[in-house]
Each structure stands twice: as structure tokens, then as C-alpha cells.
Amino acid sequence: MVDPNKRVAVDEEANVAERRAKLARMRESGNPYPNDFSRTHTVLLVTAQYGETTGEELERQQVAITIAGRLMSKRVLSDTSLGVIEDASGRIQIAVSDGASGKASHAAFAQWDTGDIVGAEGILYRAVGGELTIRAHSIQLLAKAVRPPEDHASDGDALESLPRYAQLMVSPKARKVFAVRSRALQGIRQLFSATQYMEVETPLLQPGPGPDAASTFETHHNALGMALYLRGSAMPYLARLAVGGMEKVYEINRSFRNDGRFVEQRFELTKMEIYCAYSSYLYMMALLELVIARAAKSSVGSTTLALQGQEVDLTKPFARISIGQAIRNHAPTDWTDAQLRDREFLARRLSELGVPFADDAPWGALQVRLFRAVAARHLIQPAFVVDFPLNEMPLARRSERDPDLSEGFELFVGGRAIAEGASVINDATELEGRITDAEFIRAVEYGLPPASSAALSIDMLVMLLTGSTSVRDVILFPDS
Question: What is the pTM of this model?
Fold first, then answer.
């Protein structure tokens, strides 16, 4: 039996060899990679201006178009050959002929391959089938593609096997995901620029491991002879800025986690982290409602999403629910608050579910594990889960209602955690017993205003907005 994968590899190698031979011949007569072509139009501009224009009107106007892009398909005929050029905004047909383009250009076009980058200058008209078409008066090869584009746009498995840039080359659907991501970020930034927030930049490589030392990536700077650490969060630096008098700041950044928490988000996260002085976690929850609704409206044009068979309206107030109540809502029996703080009880329940846990983990850690095991995936409608155990949120202020709980939250939509936040501790003495970041504690000793913070996962947000089922689908380079 012939191995189809091997056959594809052999065919590709033969195709590449043939294209390299063509490239060698092209070099003999000129430069196959010129940079002297200037386009006047994009496909979007052409279709926006002339998409409704009749063929008769186009013939009368004699609209001159100069366009460039990738040759996605071609059909060579003796009289008039057709090709489809694609740029970042769309596709358009070109017609190449001896009469309009010249015999030499027509013959050259016949030798070009799909994937080549070409430029065409000509007059816009409608073909027999009604398609907007450019009757090319001149065409030019701008870059020879030695490797062919894989036309797997309709084959999900085959498309998934390609590098991201190759997927983007042949799949408008894949490009659309990242257009949504870009528009979501633009909408968020517009919202914050109108609310007196300042966008800032903080260090990616840090001299200390930060508050959560166990989950920090460590590296070594050879020239300086010192250890450096990839940040897990920008929050300690945003707090320093609040100490310095910058009361409303945010950063859209890359942060890293060297543990299994939110493992579906991978180790390199894109987050939006927000810090606001003179506010509490109640303010931050309300702010996130605005941010997520604006991101949806800006990116997909609607604040209503279909998630796991449910309609989710992002303009409605999000639910607020305690972690204990969330567990009880989805537990097989009605467990009490006392049971949900009993370490032995929690350990038995986790063991029954086959959920691993550390032997020395406190009750708070076990309660959170139980929540993630039995309740989290059921939170399809937006819900802020509050009243997390204090030891699970090291920078969160202690709840005034219950000293064992924190003023912290996680936001769930579509069964996934997409954000977290808290009223932050500004008592340096209390921090000394909860984190090991001495430099951060020193900054707080100068006087940190009462404040709240939040971290929104941009990757998880875009998954919701695009209906993606894997975080890989919304990351430009998932395999680095």
C-alpha cells in the first residue's frame, strides 16, 4: 500500500525542484525579486468602489488599477489566461492575453506558479460570468515562490498540520481570527484612552522571581553574571507606579507561568493587567464588564455570543457567585460551608474524583481544586466567582466579612476562566508573611493607596469572540 503522506512529501520535493529550476532560468534574464513596483489599489478598495458598478459603466469609465498580491490560482489558455491575485484584503481576477498584455508577458505568466507574488496594471471590467476583473496591460513577477502554497483551506486536519504562516496564506478563516484579535485590542485601548488610564511598559526580565517564585522561569545574563526571571505578572510594577502617583495604569503584555495553572493558556500568556488606585474589586469587576463588551462590539460587531449552545449577552450584568455556592450548584449533594473548609472532607471528595493534590496543601487549595473539578466548566454565562480562600490569592486584601477569605475574584465565561482580580494589599507588614518579593514590599512601605487590580487573558477572550476551541487557534505562533 502506498503511504499517502510519503507521496505528498515526494510530490512537494519534486515541485520545489521544478520551481528552483525555473528560478535559475529567471535569474539569467533578470532579477526575479525586484522592488520597483508601486500599487495604487488594494482588493478591498477596488471592491468597495466598484463592486456595484455595471460592466457597461466600467467600460465607459476605463478605470485604471495597479494591484499586487499572491497568485492563488491560474488557468492558461491560448487566447486569454486567467489568474486570481490575493492581497491582505481579498481576491480579484486578472486576465492576461497576447493582445492586452503582449506575447512576452503572456508567455511569462504561463510559466509562473501559484504562490508567486505578482503585480498587475490594467483596466477594470466585468468578465462573462460577472466577476470584477483586471485586463492586464502589464504584469510583473515580484517574488518567486520556491515552495508551493498548500491548498488545504477546506481540510481542517491538513490545515492544522501546516505552520501558521502557511495557514494564513491559504485560509481567509485563519486570517479572520487574528483580525478579530487586533480589533478587540484596538477597542479596549480606545475605551481606556477615554477613561484617563495610562498605558505603560514594565520589565519583562526581572532581577527577582516576583511574588509567585515557584512558577517563575529563571535564566542567566552572561555579561552581567546574574540570574534574571521572566515575569509572571506586571502587577508588582504597576503597584510601584501607583506608589509613584500614577493612579490609573494598564499594560497589555506577555507574561509567563512555569506551572500547571490555567495550562490551557500555555506558558506564554498575553494579558491585559489593570491597576486603579482608590478602588476595590467591586469597581474592577464592573470595569471588566465594560472592557469585554467593548472588545466584542469592536471585533465582531455584536455583544451577543453563542457559547456551548447558549446565547450569552455581554451587555447584561455578570453574575456574582461565591466559590462555595458554585461548588454546591454542581455537586452531587448539598455540601455545607463547614464541609467546604474541612481539609479531610475536601481531600476525600478530590480522591473520589481522581483529582491529584499535594499532601501538605491547605484547605483553601483543595477547595479551589474541587471548584475547578466540579463547577468551573459549567459556568457558561458570565460569572464572577468571589470569596476565594485567602491563601490562594497572595496579593489580595483580606475580606472584612471573613478573615479566611479574600477580596478576589475569577471571571468565567463559556466555562473558562478569562480574568482574575482583587482589592490589593497595601499593608507592607501583612505582605511580609505572604510573599517573598522584598523589593515589592519595600515599595509598598513608601505608602501604596488602596487599590484594585485585574488581569484579563487576551488569548481566552479571543477564543470566546471567535468560537475557537483551542488556544492554539488564536496565537500567531503557537509552536514558537
Answer: 0.88
